[in-house]
Each structure stands twice: as structure tokens, then as C-alpha cells.
Design a protein that fits this description.
This protein is an alpha/beta fold. It has helices at residues 5-18, 165-171, 197-211, 230-240, 248-253, 279-286, 307-326, 331-353, 362-368, 384-391, 409-413, 421-432, 436-444, 457-463, 466-470, 494-508, 535-547, and strands at 39-48, 54-72, 84-90, 94-99, 105-109, 115-116, 122-123, 129-134, 175-179, 219-228, 266-270, 292-295, 301-304, 372-375, 378-381, 481-487, 513-519. The longest helix is centred in the middle third of the chain and has 23 residues, at 331-353.
């Protein structure tokens, strides 16, 4: 249902009051043609530890390219240290690089040069798609890959194995852009890096690239957003909320290019912690049979639900099923579709990527784990519930996102306050039925200052929810090309959100180019897990995406 004019005006007025007045700062010139003498040459990079620290004295080779660093994308940034982007272009697209004698080069691009990658896709400097990477994690500050101006030479950082996944994009002939954005851990900001700062900054960066399309490398009409976890949520949100009017006051406040647009071509979304307003319901739906979990942290360890938590879990599952029905899904078909995606992933893994040093064959793999069975030459999941219990370790308690203490990263996004109206609705229902613990929680979740409906919070929640735009509640120009990547070892809510959004796109909106891909990687977990085993597969999909129109 389309948003009414009155509600739009309410949102605009609310946001105008919400945004702090920025201090008098330097006004940045957004004409990229004045920066063409500031490129640097890159063929090596620092090596990072698993914890993101630089390994002293170690470097790794990366595909030769030029980088334009610390490009501020809005005229009045709250922090230029954060609100900038880095642009990388393969050397094949460069006709002349004039050495300025100070470590920088003035570039002239060769518009006729053709780059053909390993998959056989060919691009020029004007037709190459732009990979638009954010590094947001936990809705915290997203940094450009250079990690700021003080770490000179730190470009396209390699992991502990010496491989730069970011450099893979350059090697494929794409233009790689990494964008910085404000977050909940940003220091010294009046806005505190809360919603909607993250998505506003990503939109401002897109507008900058489009406004300077004539001079910068790449096709700004083929921007493909990339992000993982909360960054995956923001990449998806960028893709579904193109040109939504509700963001205009925020964009104008930071001096974004207002005569450009912020819709994008496509998105590669990994493990999106999206739609936080329904995340607690979706999490229990995914882990519907699990009442045990392993909590991380100083007070962590193996935990088991008490009677109240078990009752709340059942109510949240029922509420999510009702939500699916409201969206027009048949709940049985919805679940079967997710199971089918799991079985496809099992087939791909056992036929292409099986670790034969650990497993003799597919049958041996099936015997090693609960929830899967080998029969008739194939490995399949026994059921959705059995597979989730066997592969997706539950790492969160009940009320996993809108926690009682409001200390989750999602709660910090809204000022360390409660935000989930769907969770509150379930608590109020249980309270009405006489549950004293639910009544206590419902009271806490409705406090004037930190409650679900306090300080215009629900308007911010709506803005940060992908489903707001997919359902048409807020009008937007939605990207037409999508790849949702998730690992099956990821017990977080990302895979369920990815499946929900991808299925809604193709079933309800008729978007044809939507791929929901699960990677089997129980044997090699890392954070949310590895959603892809081979970058060439990713490259092939991105090439097909870029050639679609």
C-alpha cells in the first residue's frame, strides 16, 4: 500500500527535527574532475590478521591498479575522516599515467581499451560495472579499505593467507569502490552514528559517483552494492530504497548531490541482518526446535531456555507465520522452498567442493553430521528443522536482537532503545493471557524514553527495514539484479532474511534476476561462514548480472 502524503510530510518533519545542526566546517567540492591528478599506483598491500590487525613487515602482491583515495562524497560531512570513498581502477584502462613527482599520478583513461577477464566477459573503462563495497559490521562505522589517511600504503588489504579478496574485483576488470559510513561506534558525532546515518552515507556516495560519471571510471548506471552481516542489510536497503523521498532531508543536510539519484543496478548481499523489526520472530522461526544455545562472552557458556522462554518462542513462531500469511505466502510452500535451497546447496557441495581429505565421499560426509542423509547417490536434509539443528549453531538467546538490556548492536542503532513492535505485540498478548513475566517485559518495552514507540522511533525502524520498500509502503526504485549469499553454518538470522526478501522479489514483484545461494561450509566456519568457495563463481554471476541489460 502506498504511503499517504500526510505520512510522508510527517516523516520529513520528524527527520528535520532529528538531524542535528552541523558545526561550521569546510565545504567540500564535489567535482571529481579536480582530483584526477591524485591517483596512486598500487601493486602490493599489507597483510591483516584474523582480528583485523596489520602484520608488521609483511606485504602481499595485488593486481596492479591505481587508487583515488579519501574522496569526500558530500559537501558538508559530519566527519570527512569517515564520509569518503576510495576508487580503484585496473591499469589496463589507463592510457597515460603522468608522474607528478610526489607519489601521485595524473591519469588519462583509454576509452577503447578492452579488459577480458577469466570468465570471458569484456569491459571498457566506461562499461565496467562498479562494485560498491561497504564494510559495515554491527551497524558500526564502515571504513574505506585504506583504513584512513594515516596508514599510507595500506590498500586492498590481504588476509592472513596473503590473499586480497578486494583485489579479486579489480582483477576481474571491475571498478572497485569502497565507501566509508558513520556508525554507532563513531566518536565525536552529534548524530551519534545512529539510524539512518549508515544508509544516508551509502546513498550520498552513489549520488557522487553518478554526478561524476563522465570523468570517473566505470558505468555509474551499473553500481552493484556489496556488504555482509549488517553491511549486507545496508547493501540490500540501498538496493530496495532507491530515490525514496523519506531520506531527502538527511541527504540535503550533509550536502549530498541533490540533482543526482541514488538507485542502483544490483546487489550482492551476504548474511543480511535485515528487517530488524521482525528479526526476533524470524530467528525463532529458523531455530524452531532449539531451546539450547551457546552464548559467547564473559558470561557465556551452554544455556537452556526456561519455561517462559519456551512459551515466548512458540508465540514468536506463530507470529512470524502470521506475518508470512499477511505477505501473501503459503507457509508450507515458503518452508519447502527454503528446504529446497538447502538440498541444492548440499548437491553442489558434494559434487563440486567436497573436502576429500576429510571425507572419502558424499556418503562419508553425510555420516559425519546430524540432519542429513545419503540415499540414491545424493545427500539431502532430513527436514528443515533437523538440518538447522545439525548445521546452524544457535548462538543467541530469546529476544536475540531487541534484547531486554538494549545493548545489542541493533538496539544501539536506535539509541540503546527498544524497537521491535512485533516482539512487543507478542509480549502484550502473553501478558493479556496472564503471564506475569511477559507483563513485566511489556512494561519495560513501552517506557516513554527507551520504549518501542518512544521519540518517533518507529519511523526510523520503518526507514531501516527493507520490507518497507519491497511491499510498497514507501515508494522507491528497486534494483533489478540480486544475489543473496549465505553460509549454512550461519545460525544468525541472515539466511532467513535473505530467503524472505529474495522470495518476495521474484514471487510478489516479478523481479527475474534474483538468486538465493547457500554455501555448505560446516567444515570451515568463519564469522557468518563462507558463502562461496570460488571467486570465479562470484565473478561469473556478476558478469551475467552486468550483461543482463
Amino acid at each position: 500500500m502506498k504511503k499517504t502524503i500526510a505520512l510522508i510530510l510527517t516523516a520529513v518533519l520528524f527527520l528535520s527535527q532529528l538531524l542535528p545542526a552541523l558545526a561550521e566546517e569546510e565545504t567540500y567540492d564535489l567535482d571529481a574532475s579536480k582530483l584526477m591528478d591524485q591517483w596512486v599506483y598500487i601493486d602490493s598491500t599489507a597483510v591483516m590478521t584474523p582480528m583485523g590487525q596489520i602484520k608488521e613487515g609483511e606485504t602481499a602482491k595485488v593486481y596492479p591498479c591505481y587508487g583515488l583515495m579519501n574522496v569526500v562524497y558530500c559537501a558538508h560531512p559530519e566527519s570527512a575522516r569517515i564520509q569518503h570513498l576510495d576508487i580503484y581502477v585496473p591499469t589496463e584502462y589507463v592510457k597515460e599515467a603522468r608522474d607528478n613527482g610526489n607519489g601521485t599520478f595524473t591519469l588519462t583513461f583509454d576509452e577503447e581499451a578492452v579488459f577480458t577477464n577469466l570468465n570471458g566477459a569484456s569491459y571498457t573503462v566506461n562499461t565496467a560495472p562498479i562494485i560498491y563495497q561497504n564494510t559495515i559490521d554491527g551497524y558500526k562505522e564502515g571504513y574505506s579499505i585504506t583504513l584512513g589517511t594515516e596508514t599510507k600504503g595500506i590498500h586492498l588489504n590481504a588476509d592472513q593467507s596473503g590473499k586480497s579478496v578486494y583485489g579479486d574485483y579489480v582483477q576481474a576488470g571491475y571498478i572497485y569502490v569502497c565507501v566509508g559510513s558513520r556508525g554507532v561506534d563513531s566518536e565525536g558525532l552529534e548524530s551519534r552514528g545512529m539510524a539512518p546515518d549508515q544508509i544516508v552515507d551509502l546513498k550520498a556516495g552513489v549520488r557522487y559517483l553518478k554526478a561524476n560519471d563522465a570523468v570517473l571510471p566505470g558505468d555509474a548506471n551499473k553500481i552493484i552494492a556489496v556488504g555482509g552481516s549488517a553491511g549486507g542489510s545496508c547493501a540490500a536497503l540501498l538496493g530496495v530504497s532507491g530515490n525514496a523521498e523519506v531520506f531527502l532531508p538527511c541527504l540535503e543536510k550533509i550536502g549530498a548531490v541533490m540533482d543526482a539519484t541514488d538507485d542502483i543496478y544490483g546487489a550482492r548481499v551476504q548474511a543480511p541482518i535485515a528487517n530488524v523489526d521482525i528479526a526476533d520472530m524470524a530467528y525463532e522461526y529458523l531455530h524452531s526446535t532449539e531451546v539450547n544455545y551457546h552464548q559467547m562472552g564473559p558470561n557465556g557458556g551452554d544455556k537452556t531456555f526456561d519455561d517462559f522462554q519456551i512459551a515466548l518462542q512458540k508465540e514468536l513462531i506463530t507470529a512470524f507465520e502470521a506475518y508470512l500469511t499477511e505477505l501473501g505466502f503459503d507457509t508450507a510452500t515458503f518452508k519447502d522452498g527454503y528446504l529446497a535451497a538447502i538440498n541444492k546447496a548440499l548437491d553442489v557441495y558434494t559434487t563440486r567442493w567436497l573436502d576429500k581429505e576429510q571425507y572419502e565421499n558424499a556418503e562419508g560426509f553425510a555420516k559425519a553430521y546430524d540432519g542429513i542423509t545419503y540415499a540414491d547417490g545424493k545427500v539431502t536434509a532430513d527436514s528443515l528443522e533437523a538440518f538447522v539443528a545439525g548445521f546452524m549453531t544457535r548462538g543467541k538467546s530469546i529476544m536475540a536482537f531487541d534484547t531486554e538490556a538494549s545493548k545489542s548492536w541493533e538496539a544501539r542503532l536506535f539509541g540503546e532503545a527498544h524497537f521491535s513492535a512485533s516482539l512487543l505485540s507478542v509480549l502484550e498478548k502473553m501478558a493479556a493471557d496472564g503471564n506475569a513475566e511477559a507483563a513485566r517485559l511489556a512494561e519495560a518495552y513501552t517506557r516513554p524514553d527507551t520504549g518501542v514507540y518512544g521519540e518517533g522511533r518507529q519511523e526510523l525502524v520503518r526507514m531501516m527495514s527493507c520490507m518497507t520498500y519491497l511491499t510498497g509502503e514507501e515508494k522507491a526504485d528497486i534494483a533489478r539484479h540480486w544475489r543473496f549469499n549465505n553460509s549454512t553454518m550461519d545460525g544468525d538470522v541472515g539466511s532467513m532474511m535473505a530467503y524472505l526478501m529474495s522470495r518476495y522479489m521474484w514471487e510478489k514483484l516479478g523481479i527475474g534476476d534474483v538468486d538465493f545461494y547457500l554455501g555448505i561450509d560446516k567444515i570451515s566456519p568463519a564469522g557468518h561462514g563462507y558463502p562461496d568457495f570460488c571467486f570465479l563463481d562470484v565473478e561469473a554471476y556478476l558478469d551475467a548480472m552486468a550483461e543482463a541489460e
